[in-house]
Design a protein that fits this description.
Layout lengths: L2 H19 L23 E5 L2 E4 L2 E4 L2 E5 L2 E3 L5 H14 L3 E5 L12 E6 L6 H5 L5 E3 L7 H10 L8
Parallel strand pairs: 4-7
Antiparallel strand pairs: 1-6, 2-3, 3-4, 5-8, 6-7
């Protein structure tokens, strides 16, 4: 493992540990926000509680499936995907997160909400995840060009599912 990966892994695991013990943001008992029920544009921001982690870039909040804009994690059946899902469970599972809508982007072809995700301690989840080899910057699901470019700057290792 390269030195930079070791450093980021150490920082990431420390954050996961702090989140897990509640220092950076205890799990919330708030109820899940119901999805918008009309053809109108989704609100710019909403707060939900994650009820299930599907993989490193997809979570469930109640009956809504949310795919994180700008990133693509390895499939859960791969070693990298298992690591991405484990990290997502530690950071997001059972916790309150803030979803940010991208103007003009609402859902993908599978019906999943496409949103940016802010963690309880105020950090963009996509930027955090792309620092690991299991997740890469990805423009295919939408996102502003500048945002995806900033993710690519943080994604120094590319994606490796190995």
């Amino acid at each position: 493992m390269r030195t930079a990966e070791k450093v980021w892994s150490g920082i990431g695991m420390a954050l996961v540990g702090l989140v897990g013990i509640g220092v950076l943001g205890p799990a919330s008992n708030a109820t899940t926000v119901a999805p918008a029920s009309s053809a109108t544009e989704a609100p710019a921001r909403s707060t939900v509680t994650v009820t299930d982690v599907i993989d490193g870039d997809t979570v469930r909040a109640g009956n809504q499936v949310i795919h994180v804009l700008g990133i693509d994690s390895c499939a859960p059946s791969t070693p990298g995907g298992a690591e991405a899902k484990q990290m997502a469970e530690a950071l997001l599972g059972g916790r309150e997160i803030t979803l940010r809508a991208e103007p003009g982007i609402d859902r993908d072809a599978s019906g999943r909400l496409l949103r940016h995700v802010d963690l309880a301690f105020g950090y963009d989840y996509g930027h955090f995840m792309v620092t690991y080899a299991h997740t890469g910057a990805d423009a295919s699901n939408g996102g502003l060009r500048d945002y995806v470019a900033s993710l690519r700057e943080d994604d120094r290792n590319g994606r490796s599912c190995g």
